[in-house]
Amino acid sequence: MPRKARIYVTLKPTLLDAQGRVVQQALTNIGFEGVRDVRIGKYIEMDLDDSAATEETVREMCAKLLANPVVEDYRFEVEGS
Amino acid sequence: MKFAVLRFPGSNCDQDAYFAALNVLRQPVEYVWHESTDLAGADCVIIPGGFSYGDYLRCGAVAALSPVMGAVRKFAASGGLVIGICNGFQILCESGLLPGVLLRNRGLRFICRHVHLRLENADTPFTRSGTVGEVLSIPIAHGEGNYFADESTLRELEDSGRVILRYCGPGGEVEDRYNPNGAARNIAGIVNREGNVAGMMPHPERACEPILGSEDGLVILNSILGGRA
After folding, report:
1. Are the beta carbons of B189 and B86 closer than 8 angstroms?
2. Is A64 on the interface with B (CB under 8 A)?
């Protein structure tokens, strides 16, 4: 049975998220009050064989390809680990 | 001087770069496919603009890990000239050959127009036929050209003269109102520490003949050839 890995890639908090700001404004425009800050990131889901479903492997995937450490942070969970 | 123009799925300025090398500079040039690890004996590699791999994940991220970029990394380490234009600049940043990253334009829009650029360092293989302070008119065409690097990297770039081009006004004024995309310190182009790898968002190959509205891109292209004006 393949196991799920769920990876969240987010823009570092110190960076301006221009996209998030536009969405925040749009939410306010359509009547949602109290929306202070919107940050937009990526959610990546994958099915992994047991051999690949380790935190070490997923961390390496993030470091090498899925996130750019200059501007992004990541966190993830691997099912059953 | 022989040129190689890299081609990724989604490259779309490859033919312009090829044309500039062959018909404007009158030099031999060959396309090199992204799966190849043979750079065709080139003296200078051009990584052209476009949307390699559809800009999936992040612009340049997938291309940076392609087989041809392994060859480019070795070529650059041995002193070969490499210039990345637009998406090529993004690929060089993602591959670690240049520092920093190109983020989404601060206005969130794709911008396609001529901009003014101030030449900041005429002592590189990519700018030597120009003069410091010279203002060039060259087009940009990108949605993600907002150069970002941390403060210490920016300071290092500045201190070592590695910023080669900055967005400016018609008289060379480096001011925020002339910054089209929000790039840190109006940076439009940089070189690596050794000076043999350059990245720039503007397209010199789109400004290399009078019919294109500007020949200012020749300052960059002729520099590569050895500084002949």
Report:
1. no
2. yes
- Pick from B57, B62, B101: which is nearest to A71 by CB? B101
Residue A50 structure tokens: 């047991």
Give residue-wise pLDDT tens across range B84-95: 999 999 999 999
For B194, the 3-state DSSP assignment is coil
Task: Write the CB contacts of A58 (distance below 8 Å, at least 6 apart in sequence).
Answer: A5, A7, A48, A76, A78
Q: Show which residues of B are catalytic.
A: 86, 203, 205
Name which of B23, B66, B24 is nearest B47 in CA terms: B66
Distance of CA B71 to the CA centre of its chain: 18
Which tokens hold the place of A11?
Answer: 């823009």
Q: Which residues, 6 or more positions from B46, have their beta carbon under 8 angstroms from its beta carbon?
A: B3, B4, B5, B6, B17, B21, B83, B84, B85, B88
- Cα dihedral A60, B94, B74, A61, rounded to 10, equals 10
Give the model confidence (pLDDT) of B85-125 as tens digits.
999 999 999 999 999 999 999 999 999 999 999 999 999 99
Nearest-by-CA chain B residue for A18: B106
Contacts of B150 in chain A (CB under 8 A): 70
- Whole-model pTM: value is 0.95
Q: What six digits make up the tokens of A68?
A: 């750019």
Give the minimum alpha-carbon distance from B45 to chain A in angstroms, rounded to a whole number: 24
pLDDT at site B125: 97
ipTM for the predicted complex: 0.88
List alpha helices for chain B, DSSP H: 14-19, 67-77, 87-94, 151-159, 218-225
- Strands B111-119 and B163-168: what pairing? antiparallel
What band does B227 get if pLDDT is binned at 50, 70 and 90?
low
pLDDT of residue B163: 98
Give how far Cα B104 sits from Cα of A25, B36, B108, B147, Å. 18, 30, 6, 9
